[in-house]
Write a structure and sequence with these properties.
Strand content: under 5%
Shape: globular
Number of strands: 5
Order of helices and strands: HHHHHHHHHHHHHHHHHHHEEHHHEHEE
Helix content: 55-70%
Strand order of the largest sheet: 2-1-3-5-4
Number of helices: 23
Radius of gyration: 24 Å
Largest sheet: 5 strands, mixed
Number of domains: 2
């Protein structure tokens, strides 16, 4: 009888998992192809292209994170094409993979399909998740890796035997997340505390195996490795590495809906915290994902400048922490009514926020002043403008590497960084340091424009109406450049050779 029940349950679960996966894949694909282009995406994708051209991270181009992401995205792009659509589809697959893992693990932990569906709905219905995970950035990959590692540790703690492989795998996955973004060292360290009594050695071994390739970059270019992961972030603003506490307080208020921010994600976060508070009130929470999620929230407050997107990685951990309460709430009539109302309001806010993320006009939010809102279609027009006004072999000068991504033209060396940001740090670096860290300084950029070697220049992203933009605009005019394309704060200048 037990075997029959198990087989029936397994068949039903697989059908539900397939249905949930298909629905999430459809939703994330739609979102990924509709989201506006983010400033950092082009930066990451350019790095992803470089590593498969034989260039080495840090030594041959400036890079501000740990080195793994370019190799993951670069392999995908090499196989499926160097395009924005290809990159975004990988983001949709990563987001879906995490949602499917969450569905399967929730069922395994509670033996309830209703809990599994609720976990998937809270995850895929999160504006934080929909807005940031499908982008070609670090969030989807790091959330996937550390969530899977956390699941491994939770499984290992429930077993009496055969746990070494689970702890080893958890350590390796946690190490890979650090290889993508250094701040996940805090989350990986917190997770390691739960391995201390039974699985410390295999966890640390897995962690060490994943982190070992970093020794290659340290050996090749220790100064550039340090600057990309620490030094740049320390001098990026006048507030230093972890300063700017007034800004962070404002960001916290926006994060929980107590102050108006971009879109309505803060109000949805407030509903999510209400659900989490209900779970905490009943003391039906799991310690492992709760503390890992809390550590990620803590470390997300440290960087300066501080952006609310950093906090999106905590979403799956808070869902995992609430699984016991979710099962109890779904079985209790009064809790079920409360849960239905809260989740209903939570889901209503998702399309309202996506209107903001897709660049649609709506009366309930204000777009941040100076923030460029570009659709993928704009990049298609930009690509055509660049291709039509240059010849094969021409190099182009761009203020952000994403402008050149997807074209068949190369950028001038040392322009691979998001140079509106680098403009802020030039006063804090000597010219020798700028050259060592692979920057083209402001003076060098102006000299290059005046040299006659440049046929096409793209300006935008954070420079519009700034002193640097206006100065660069007049310099281009003086050197015979004309406007070929203009969209919001994005301008393409060209001249005949």
């Amino acid at each position: 009888m037990e075997d029959v029940l198990r087989n029936t349950l397994g068949t039903g679960f697989r059908k539900h998992l397939l249905a949930a996966t298909v629905l999430m894949l459809a939703g994330f694909t739609l979102t990924s192809l509709s989201l506006l282009v983010n400033l950092d995406e082009g930066y990451y994708l350019t790095a992803s292209r470089f590593v498969y051209q034989g260039k080495i991270v840090y030594r041959d181009f400036f890079y501000t994170q740990m080195p793994l992401l370019p190799y993951i995205y670069g392999l995908w792009l090499k196989l499926f094409g160097y395009s924005w659509t290809s990159a975004r589809l990988l983001g949709a697959l990563i987001s879906t993979a995490l949602g499917s893992a969450l569905f399967a693990f929730s069922f395994q932990q509670t033996r309830s399909l209703r809990v599994a569906w609720l976990a998937a709905i809270l995850y895929a219905g999160s504006a934080f998740v929909q807005e940031w995970y499908p982008l070609a950035k670090t969030y989807g990959l790091t959330a996937l890796g550390l969530t899977l590692a956390t699941m491994q540790v939770m499984r290992a703690r429930e077993q009496e035997e055969g746990t070494a492989k689970l702890f080893l795998g958890a350590g390796f996955l946690a190490g890979l997340t650090i290889d993508i973004r250094l701040m996940f060292l805090v989350g990986a360290g917190t997770l390691g505390l739960f391995c201390w009594k039974r699985g410390a050695l295999p966890y640390l071994l897995g962690l060490g195996l994943a982190l070992a390739p970093n020794l290659i970059y340290l050996a090749l270019t220790p100064e550039n490795y340090y600057f990309g992961n620490f030094g740049y972030h320390n001098i990026r603003t006048s507030a230093g590495l972890v300063g700017g506490f007034e800004e962070k307080w404002i960001n916290l208020m926006k994060l929980v809906g107590l102050q108006r921010g971009d879109g309505v994600v803060g109000y949805q976060n407030a509903l999510g915290l209400l659900l989490f508070g209900s779970a905490a009130y009943t003391k039906k929470v799991r310690a492992v994902p709760l503390l890992v999620g809390a550590s990620l929230i803590f470390v997300s407050f440290l960087p300066t400048p501080n952006f609310n997107e950093y906090f999106c990685v905590a979403v799956p951990f808070l869902i995992l922490a609430c699984l016991p309460w979710m099962k109890e709430a779904l079985e209790d009539k009064s809790w079920r009514v409360f849960l239905g109302l809260a989740v209903g309001c939570y889901l209503i806010l998702l399309p309202l926020h996506l209107a903001f993320s897709f660049g649609l006009e709506a009366p309930y939010y204000e777009k941040a002043i100076g923030h460029i809102r570009r659709r993928l279609s704009t990049h298609a027009e930009l690509r055509e403008t660049i291709q039509q006004n240059t010849e094969p072999g021409d190099k182009i000068l761009v203020s952000c590497p994403g402008y050149a991504f997807g074209t068949e033209r190369e950028m001038f060396p040392k322009t691979e960084n998001n140079f509106p940001h680098s403009l802020n740090i030039f006063p804090r670096l000597s010219e020798a340091q700028a050259n060592e860290y692979q920057f083209l300084t402001d003076k060098q950029t102006e000299a290059l424009i005046s040299s006659g070697k440049v046929r096409l220049v793209v300006l935008g992203e954070g420079m519009r109406d700034s002193e640097a933009y206006i100065k660069r605009h007049y310099l281009l005019k003086e050197n015979g450049f004309k406007v070929l394309f203009h969209e919001d704060a994005l301008t393409v200048y060209g001249k005949k050779s």
